[in-house]
Design goal:
This protein is an alpha+beta fold. The protein has 9 helices and 16 strands. Strands 3-2-1-4-6-5 form a 6-stranded mixed β-sheet, with helices on both faces. Strands 7-10-14-13-16 form a 5-stranded antiparallel β-sheet, with no helix packed on it. It has a 5-stranded antiparallel β-sheet with strand order 11-8-9-15-12. The structure holds guanosine-5'-triphosphate and magnesium ion (MG). The site of guanosine-5'-triphosphate has 25 residues, from helix 7.
Length: 372
């Protein structure tokens, strides 16, 4: 048996016994390792071939790992995906990390939002959300880990607020925790992409410790898997299409009542009642938006789900073949209807309207004051 050696890419314990199980590396490779910087077979495949192999850890295992934080004296950096705030928010975060912890909220992936979005407005909205949820935060920072925006400022805020304590980066899976830590490592050591990142949920499997000084460290943690986010229901290939990679282009539709817009086959917006008005849709540029008459919409869905109306595709319909209708009476000018993980629709006019959103009941849908 080995002493406890961790994969530097994902934090899993390295083992040499079973090549089909997580953390595997051949004994010969492990024995040659002198610098203690091994990466497991799964991370190797992710880094070099962008392929994922199944893991045996489930949502509950990750929860257990994160719960161990509640007894630690540390600064918590909670990361959310700004494009998918509700889908990446962990409702019981203070229970998990322990009450009365110092929390810094980091909204990542701001590069995805259209340039016209005012950062101050988003910050205000986030402060309001935190207040509503009864969570006191030390600060809120907007960053793009990938584009290296806001990283210097975040690093110095963390250094100031941690008051000599350890730092844990926590959040839902896929929000960009490991990408962020890689940038922090790069700032201090110049080493690039030390930790494995990928667009697949569940990339990091264990706590990864990066020393800050002789006594304290910053820790990457496995993301919590949330089942109300759309990414939970899509296979790896479909996810590539649905998760936006570039700045989202707003798509504007002038609609009459009794018209519908399909987001591939994943969601449908019905403009049920109201005067002709414009709707702006923010979703991955790769999702086809398909306009049709409301009276034809059910029929079209039944005939063409997985083909004309995709993603999802025929082999991967999952929950999508069974959508449910939710109704919204919009009265305030500039309201966003958010479909967790997919994007949102801004209702622009103050004429008022009645909208139905047809999507599986598992996907969270809600309204908010427009953030743009
Ligand atoms: N557009 C954009 N994508 C990002 C950004 N940061 C991370 N990503 C992407 O988001 C995906 C997930 O990134 P990771 O760093 O692996 O996320 P994680 O939170 O560590 O995920 P788990 O380890 O599964 O919990 C990858 O495809 C990243 O390239 C960002 O600032 N902007
Ligand atoms: Mg990670």
């Amino acid at each position: 048996m080995l002493g406890r050696i961790q994969c530097i890419g994902c934090g899993i314990e390295i083992q040499t016994e079973d090549s089909t199980k997580q953390g595997y590396l051949p004994k010969s490779v492990v024995e040659k390792n002198i610098e203690n910087s091994l990466i497991c077979k799964r991370c190797f495949r992710l880094k070099h071939h962008n392929e994922i192999s199944d893991i045996e850890l489930g949502a509950e295992d990750f929860y257990q790992l994160i719960r161990s934080l509640s007894t630690k004296n540390a600064l918590i950096v909670k990361v959310v995906d700004i494009f998918d705030f509700s889908g990446s928010w962990i409702e019981d975060v203070t229970d998990i990390v322990g009450k009365n912890k110092d929390i810094v909220l980091v909204a990542n992936k701001i590069d995805l939002l259209p340039k016209s979005v005012k950062e101050n407005k988003i910050k205000q909205w986030l402060f309001k959300m935190m207040k509503q949820k009864g969570i006191k935060v030390k600060d809120i920072l907007l960053i793009s880990a990938i584009k290296n925006q806001g990283i210097d400022e975040l690093a110095s805020r963390i250094d100031y607020l941690r008051e000599g304590k350890d730092v844990y980066i926590v959040g839902a899976t896929n929000v960009g925790k490991s990408t962020l830590i890689n940038k922090l490592i790069e700032l201090t050591s110049g080493d690039k992409n030390v930790i494995t990142t990928s667009h697949f949920p569940g990339t990091t499997l264990g706590m990864i410790e990066i020393p800050l000084d002789s006594k304290t460290s910053i820790f990457d943690t496995p993301g919590i898997i949330l089942d109300y986010d759309i990414s939970h229901y899509l296979n790896a290939n479909t996810l590539k299409l649905v998760l936006p990679k570039k700045e989202i282009k707003a798509r504007v539709f002038q609609l009459n009542a009794e018209q519908s817009i399909f987001f591939g086959g994943m969601c449908r917006m019905d403009f049920v009642e109201g005067d002709r008005q414009s709707f702006t849709i923010y979703a991955s540029n790769q999702i086809d938006l398909h306009r049709t008459k409301l009276e034809n919409a059910d029929n079209l869905f039944e005939k063409h789900l997985g083909e004309l109306l995709s993603p999802p595709f025929k082999d991967d319909l999952s929950i999508f073949s069974n959508p449910e209708k939710r109704s919204f009476d919009i009265t305030a000018r500039k309201t966003d209807i958010v479909i967790s993980g997919l994007g949102w629709i801004t209702v622009n006019s103050d004429l008022g309207c009645k909208i139905n959103i047809v999507t599986p009941k598992e996907i969270e849908v809600f309204t908010r004051e427009s953030i743009i």
